[in-house]
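Quick one: structure tokens for this chain, please?
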Amino acid sequence: MTEANAFVNNCQNITEQFGVMINRATAAMSEIERSSEAISKITNVMSNIAIQTNLLALNTGVEAARAGEAGSGFRVLAQEIRDLANRAGNASKEVKELVETSRGQVLSGVTIMEEAGHAISTIISSVADIGDHLKAIAEAASEQATALQEVNNAVSTIDQGTRQNAAMVEETSAASSGMAQQARQLKGLLNEFTLA
């Protein structure tokens, strides 16, 4: 019974530690989810900047075209700015897609960890119930052992009484035998007397 209790206690400790780890992992997943939301907001800002920069480059190109030959340097600069804005916009879009994919995976992970957390809570509760049952069994076994000891003592007392009774019967039998012999002797003596 002691080994069973030790085993149950060990199981309970392990499942509780596992529960703590799952809680930590769930908290980490939640932090990752918050970070991905922040990154998503940043990529939205980057997309807006890229759009505004593209518009600015377009306006610069229009103004450079109006300036004619004098604006040719601005046209090259406007094209470079437009290319840079497009690259920034595309990079922002790719980052946003990656973040959305990561968020989906994180949400899936959070769901799995929550389910694992519920499962481990059930296991911890079940192990605690087993421990309670084992304690009840140990108490019942102890009570039965006490009752058996009392029965043993009673049987021992009865056995002792039976032996004493047997000795008394032997003594009574011996005394009866002696009395019978004395009665015969007395009868023999009485037979010797003649009554007138």
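The two ends are 91 Å apart (CA to CA).
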